[in-house]
Amino acid sequence: MVMTDLEKYWRAQPTRRVAAGGTEILFDVSTPVADQRARTLFTKEPSTIRWLDGMTGADVFYDVGANVGVYALYAASVVDAMTYAFEPDGRNFGILCRNIDLNGLSGKLLPFCVAVSNRTGPSFLYAQAGLGGESGHGLEASGKTAYQQGVMSIRLDDFAAAPKIQAPTMLKIDIDGLEPWVVEGLGDLVRTDRLRGLNIELNESDASHRATLNHLRDAGYQINEELGFVHPDGVSANIFLSRRQP
Fold first, then answer.
1. Which has the closest alpha carbon to 31: 65, 68, 2, 1?
2. CATH number, domain 19-243, options 2.40.50.1070, 3.40.50.150, 3.40.50.300, 3.90.1560.10
3. pLDDT score recorded for residue 139
4. Under a CB-based contact definition with an 8 Å cutoff, are residues 61 and 69 in contact?
5. CB 3.0-4.6 Å disulfide test: which of 84, 131, 144, 178 passes with 31?
6. Average pLDDT, integer, range 165-179
7. What are residue 23's DSSP bridge partners?
8. What would the pLDDT profile of 124-163 be if each residue is shown by its tens digit?
9. Taking the complete model, does pTM exceed 0.85, yes or no?
10. Distances (CA, A) of 211 to 22, 153, 217, 221
């Protein structure tokens, strides 16, 4: 029987193996952007990898804006941390779920197709054009976009209070400008001793982002200057915070 081109495509399901921490992580690379994310695991945000390496298997890691899950996969497979990955874009979420399956991480890395925000309820995701792996999406954004998707948004204090859910000890927030909404939705979680570290992308030229950073300082966190870095746009930066020791 001669296999058709379509059947060959169905069976191809391209993957990439990346050596990491004495093990290998398998990535779905069925789109060019997903492949780029796999190839740049260690080079795109090296400080994030160093930050993840500071976690242990006792940590509970929340990855907000997980995209296809490169850092969530690293946390679950290399660090052995219980990991929750939040990604509202359905195209990214599909690749994230396949990545979990490829690496046998079901139950260790839990994916949630929700938008993390400052309120719980139905919302609209305004997304960029393209295939899985793209970023630059916005929640409740104005203006025309190529793709609109209905999503459920959730506050993290509501999420963490749900049955069978573990509250975070480490939290990464990267959602293209709406990070203040996520911090607002933490509520009292932000002041608990359990949450000991955050990795958050902020633009300090934005008043709401400056207010968020001040709020985190007031909640008992200090900046780790050794890890922070500015993105190529020269505006946004990843800021790493840890709870101040008494």
1. 68
2. 3.40.50.150
3. 73
4. no
5. 131
6. 94
7. 20
8. 888 776 777 677 677 766 455 667 888 999 999 999 999 9
9. yes
10. 41, 22, 10, 14
